[in-house]
Amino acid sequence: MAFISKIKCRDCGTFNTNKDYCENCGALINPKLKREKSDQKRIDDREEEERNREKGKFELFIERNRNHKNIFIRLFFQLLYGIWFIVMAIGAFIAWLFAAVAA
Questions:
Q1: 0.70 exceeded by the pTM?
Q2: Pairwise CA distance, residues 28 & 45, whole Å
Q3: So where are the chain's domains?
Q4: What is each CA distance from 24 to 3, 59, 92, in whole angstroms?
Q5: C-alpha distances out from residue 31 to 4, 6, 8, 34, 89, Å
Q6: Shortest CA distance to 9 belongs to which of 32, 19, 33, 36?
C-alpha cells in the first residue's frame, strides 16, 4: 500500500499528490527538501563568510612563519604551535574533568 501525500502549493494554491515540486507553477513544496536546501544555503554562506574573513596580524604572522623558507624558523614556529596545541588539549581535559566531577 502506497502512502499518498497531498500538499497545497503556497504560491498558486494547487493541490499536488506525491510531488516535490508544484505541477502548476514549479515551486518547491516538499518541506523536507525546503529544509535541506535552506540548511545547505546556510552552510555555504558560513563557508563563504569564513573564506572572505580577513585574518588578523598575529594570525598572518604565525601562518607566514610556519611556512617560512628557512628551515630553522619553520621548525621553531612548528614547535611553538605544537606546544600551544598541547597546552590547549590539557586545558580542555581539565575543563572536562571539572565538568565531570561537578555533574
A1: no
A2: 21
A3: 6-52, 57-102
A4: 22, 53, 56
A5: 15, 12, 11, 5, 41
A6: 19
